[in-house]
Amino acid sequence: MRYQISGKQIDIGEALSTHVETELGQTLEKYAGRPTEATVVFSKSGHEHVCETVVHLSTGLTAQAKGAAPDIYAAFEACCEKMDKQLRRYKRRLKDHHKVRPGPVELSAAGSYILAPTEDEGEGEGDTDWTPIIVAETESTIPSLSVGEAVMQMELAHSPVLVFRNEKHSGINVVYRRDDGNIGWIDPRTTN
Fold first, then answer.
1. Separation between Cα atoms, residue 98 and residue 183, nearest integer Å
2. Which end of the chain has a smaller Cβ tally under 10 Å, C or N?
3. Phi first, then psi: what are they for 157, rounded to 5°?
């Protein structure tokens, strides 16, 4: 398993790195089976230290947790507890999907763009430019998952929306959290 431990304007010592690898490794070993990569980032927000952890599992799922405390070790412990609780909560589902899936999840490359908001300059003049301004461009991946795995992935990542390739028919689908707390699923298959 690869660990990437860093700090945003904070010096991370060898003792903290070793502590993170040991504690996070034990937590992941209990629940996740075969994690592939963990990214731990420490930062400071006012008087508190913040620890953000992202763990990529071999099943293609990604788990995220965040903890904050006045002490940097306490911030990591809070984050680790949240990760432990998350993985414990989904342990049965992770194991069930792991048995069904013999290999890792297939990933497709995709572009991800951040667009600047358009200003209403020249409104009513007829010469408005409808081309959005691209602020940032990054590479992203689209996993090939079942709908249940997609919902689980979205919940583990604390994301409001997830775009995925449906394993049943290879079409692009979307799951999202609705305002009423339920999960929405968009499956734009064309019917003949």
1. 23
2. C
3. -85, -5
- Each domain of the chain, given as residue ranges in start order, spans 2-98, 105-117+131-186
- Side chain identity at residue 122, one-letter code: G
Please tell me what DSSP assigns to residue 59: T
Is the pLDDT at 98 greater than 50, yes or no? no
CB 5 within 8 A of CB 23: no
**Pairwise CA distance, residues 63 & 47, whole Å:** 27
What is the pLDDT confidence band of residue 148, given thresholds at 50, 70 and 90?
confident
Residues 6+ apart with CB under 8 A from 33: 57, 58, 94, 95, 98
Phi and psi, residue 30, nearest 5° = -65, -40
Model pLDDT, residue 2: 87
Domain 2-98's class? Answer: alpha beta
Topology of 105-117+131-186 in CATH?
SHC Adaptor Protein (3.30.505)
Residue with tokens 């795995």: 149
